[in-house]
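Technical annex, item 7. During the second reporting period the consortium partners agreed on a shared format for inverse folding records so that results from different sites could be compared directly. Each record opens with the tokenized structure and is followed by the designed sequence. A conforming record, contributed by the partner at site C, is shown below for reference.
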């Protein structure tokens, strides 16, 4: 499995599986929507390192979507399992 992906589309999905974000780093163009989908049997919650966004608790098959309009690097983690982390790079 790769850990880095450049997405040309305006929508992308980060799967939460085995207590990891799949992919850990995702690069998207400005204006893209990113959806986190929980495939684990445990609850997870996505929170930005800078506090700019946070999901509600995501149960199995739950999802959270955020649109990234401004270029930048957005680090995030699971609020319930801090060892889980990822980055969205917006170009």
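Designed sequence (site C submission):
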């Amino acid at each position: 499995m790769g850990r880095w992906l450049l997405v040309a589309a305006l929508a992308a999905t980060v799967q939460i599986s085995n207590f990891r974000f799949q992919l850990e780093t995702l690069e998207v163009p400005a204006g893209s929507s990113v959806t986190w989908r929980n495939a684990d049997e445990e609850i997870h919650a996505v929170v930005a390192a800078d506090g700019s966004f946070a999901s509600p608790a995501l149960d199995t098959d739950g999802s959270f979507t955020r649109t990234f309009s401004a270029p930048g690097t957005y680090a995030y983690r699971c609020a319930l399992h801090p060892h889980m982390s990822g980055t969205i790079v917006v170009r």
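The chain has a mean pLDDT of 93. DSSP finds no helices and nine strands in the chain. All partners now use this format for quarterly exchanges.
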